[in-house]
């Protein structure tokens, strides 16, 4: 299967390794900065992979079957729509887009063209997350009470200076959209997906050079009667502390923790079908960074979906739901009121000027 990668920045090594691990026919990479492509090419043995600074040229000349889009968030939608128009299946890094309208356009274009759209929420493939999901689908939790997603990370000025698009409303959003959306996705997915209402606060406390938030707190009312708590920040001193996901039910309690929900720290169920200590020892991973090991199984799933004609495990609709929840948090915080879902329209651009325009970096 002919594969190409558009965007060779911070997350690209995970995509490159996933493509190689799945034995894709890696035909091309693309980035507007040639030096970045050269560095990745030398580091990962891609000397024979053709290089482009214009993805339109790549699509025309290479005609890949599968394209991964790992550019700045604000360009995801336009690039995805061009790839889909060219007949390519797409894996889109999070978030799938920065507006409801663009997410809908991507989903509808994929359907119209008969190609698959995958949102790159790789933490769904964590061993720990998969085991919790298995227990949930088996009904072991009983009636869900509430869940909580905590993302307690650190990002300093050096991180934002690496890429000036970070923290801007036009190309990114704040910590909730960039750093926290993976865990927000997991919380919504685990708690039943359908949401009635969101109430939230966001603020910018430690990053005056950004346009968007560095702290977000939200309460979510799910349609099944359960609740969700979201705490996300990049202000934790002096480095990333943890990313945790709690699921509380009538008959069970589970907690995924570690750097990216990659271990199980709590496991207690009324049915006593498995030994908690065995579960903790078995369903744990130690990834080298917060991106975890999920890209390789996500790619494997997409490849199989293309070959069999089914939808990918994390499809475009899943990507839209994660985006929608972050946008609902932004909207609630900006308007100082509860926000009902679904959102018919909303974009990060709706919040320009919320915390000022950011100081020059």
Would you write up a description of this structure?
With 361 residues, the chain is an alpha/beta fold. The protein has two domains: 2-123 and 294-314, NAD(P)-binding Rossmann-like Domain (Rossmann fold, 3-Layer(aba) Sandwich), CATH 3.40.50.720; 125-289 and 321-351, Dihydrodipicolinate Reductase, domain 2 (2-Layer Sandwich). The protein has twelve helices and 14 strands. It is globular, with a radius of gyration of 20 Å.
CATH superfamily of the largest domain: Dihydrodipicolinate Reductase, domain 2
**CATH architecture name of the largest domain:** 2-Layer Sandwich
Chain-averaged pLDDT: 96
Gyration radius over CA: 20 Å
Major beta-sheet overview: 8 strands, mixed
Helix segment tally: 12
| Distance N to C terminus | 42 Å
Strand order of the largest sheet: 13-12-11-7-10-9-8-14
Low-confidence blocks of residues: none
Q: What is the ordering of alpha helices and beta strands?
A: EHEHEHEHEHEHEHHHEEEEEEHHHE
What structural category characterises the helix and strand content? alpha/beta
| Number of E-state strands | 14
The helical percent reads: 25-40%
User: In what range is the share of β-strand residues?
Assistant: 15-25%
Q: What count of structural domains?
A: 2
CATH topology of the largest domain: Dihydrodipicolinate Reductase, domain 2
Shape: globular
- CATH class annotation of the largest domain: Alpha Beta
């Amino acid at each position: 299967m002919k594969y190409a990668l558009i965007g060779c920045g911070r997350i690209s090594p995970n995509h490159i390794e996933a493509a190689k691990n799945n034995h894709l026919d890696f035909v091309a990479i693309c980035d507007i900065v040639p030096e970045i492509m050269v560095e990745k090419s030398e580091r990962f043995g891609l000397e024979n992979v053709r290089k482009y600074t214009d993805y339109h040229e790549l699509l025309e000349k290479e005609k890949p079957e599968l394209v991964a889009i790992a550019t700045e968030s604000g360009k995801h939608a336009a690039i995805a729509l061009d790839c889909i128009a060219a007949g390519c299946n797409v894996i889109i890094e999070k978030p799938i887009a920065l507006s409801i309208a663009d997410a809908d356009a991507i989903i509808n274009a994929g359907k119209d063209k008969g190609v698959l759209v995958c949102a790159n929420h790789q933490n769904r493939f964590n061993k720990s997350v998969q085991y919790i999901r298995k227990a949930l689908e088996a009904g072991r939790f009983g009636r869900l009470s509430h869940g909580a997603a905590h993302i307690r990370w650190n990002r300093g000025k050096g991180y934002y200076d690496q890429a000036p698009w970070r923290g801007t409303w036009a190309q990114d959003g704040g910590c909730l959209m960039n750093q926290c959306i993976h865990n927000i996705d997991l919380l919504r997915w685990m708690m039943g997906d359908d949401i009635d209402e969101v109430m939230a606060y966001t603020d910018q406390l430690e990053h005056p050079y950004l346009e968007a938030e560095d702290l977000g707190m939200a309460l979510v009312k799910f349609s099944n009667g359960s609740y969700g708590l979201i705490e996300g920040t990049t202000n934790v001193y002096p480095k990333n502390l943890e990313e945790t996901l709690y699921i509380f039910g009538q008959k069970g309690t589970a907690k995924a923790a570690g750097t990216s929900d990659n271990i199980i720290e709590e496991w207690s169920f009324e049915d006593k079908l498995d030994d908690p200590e065995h579960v903790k020892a078995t369903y744990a991973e130690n990834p080298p960074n917060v991106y975890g090991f999920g890209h390789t199984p996500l790619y494997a799933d997409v490849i199989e979906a293309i070959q069999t004609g089914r939808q990918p495990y994390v499809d475009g609709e899943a990507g839209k739901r994660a985006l929608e929840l972050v946008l609902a948090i932004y909207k609630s915080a900006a308007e100082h009121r509860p926000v009902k879902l679904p959102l018919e329209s909303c974009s990060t651009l709706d919040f320009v000027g919320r915390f000022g325009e950011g100081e020059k970096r």
